[in-house]
Amino acid sequence: MAFKETQHQQQGKEEVEAQAVIWEHMFGMAKTMALNCAVRLGLADIIHAHGRPITLFHLASLLPIQPVNPDRLHRLMRFLVHTHLFAKTTGLNGDEETYWLTPSSQLLLRHAEKSMSGFARVHEMTVSPWLSLGPCLEEGVASAFEKTYGMSRWEYSASHPDENRAFNEAMACLARLVMPAIVGGCERLLQGARSVVDVGGGTGTAVGALAKAFPSVKFTLYDLPHVVATVGELNGVDTVGGDMFSAIPKADVVFLMRILHDWGDKECLEILKQIRKAIPEEGKVIIVDVVLKEEEEHVFRHARMGLDMVMMVQTGGKERDEGEWAKLLHDAGFKKYEVVPIMAVYSIIVAFP
């Protein structure tokens, strides 16, 4: 009898745990949208400018929307504390709650050196395609984004300047976050290099950091003409507009950061073959992208797996494991490669002819 009761209790526990998994999946979007709300309201900046833990009443008085519903603000802050984005303290008498920053919410400060606020913003154009995740599994469908809007992510950006500006700001935000780790990883890889072309370099945040760190190297930013047109003056960097599928400027080293994950294997092979033409026999290509390791317990494991889903929805691209990278590089004419881990969600993959 006792055994049956224990077995029944175990089955009940397993069922509850299974339900909890589904509940977490169903309301996972609450984390994303609450983070987006915090960024758009500037909660971290308001609390930081206050200089000390702030009461709900005082926080409400400083929000850009007025008047504020205090109950709803309290519930938002309660959730953000629950997800460890903000911290809550109580007075000695336990009657006054105040809110303060955590290491995570410090990354939401707009003018912080490693701010993630621009990248954390959610835009309608990126949310709607998720409703077409199922239909995009059909063979021949380029992406959920294209299924939703009738054009690729890049065509949409080219015809919507405001959205393109927001996208470029988000990419620049992400570049500032990870570039210190990438610069450190590139110290050995750029020894002896005279020229580097940053393919798909956007507004130049990444190549600007590289040029500052390696002033003896000639750097060129290469991207689509409408992207290059938005680039300001960068010390030590030339800019060239063009199409990476047609040709790539010649250089000792070609650098690509978060470019190949936007594309399927066929397109990546075309890009890599153009790179192979652009570099000399003693040259190299440096790729900054995710290297998936499904079984590895890593602080960025969930983020990397999530990025793969984002690529499938937004661009039709993918994140790749080391075996997939090895095959791509071999098929493009690169004889050897190495993966250089860095303290970031990305890794450095360097390949040689």
From TrEMBL:
It comes from Amborella trichopoda. GO terms for biological process: methylation. The keyword Membrane does not apply. Keywords: Methyltransferase, S-adenosyl-L-methionine, Transferase. PROSITE patterns: SAM_OMT_II (PS51683). InterPro entries: COMT-like, COMT_C, COMT_dimerisation, SAM-dependent_MTases_sf, WH-like_DNA-bd_sf, WH_DNA-bd_sf. The active site is at 261 (proton acceptor). GO terms for molecular function: O-methyltransferase activity; protein dimerization activity; S-adenosylmethionine-dependent methyltransferase activity. Signal peptide: none annotated. Residues 130-335 form the O-methyltransferase C-terminal domain. Residues 23-110 form the O-methyltransferase dimerisation domain. This is O-methyltransferase domain-containing protein.
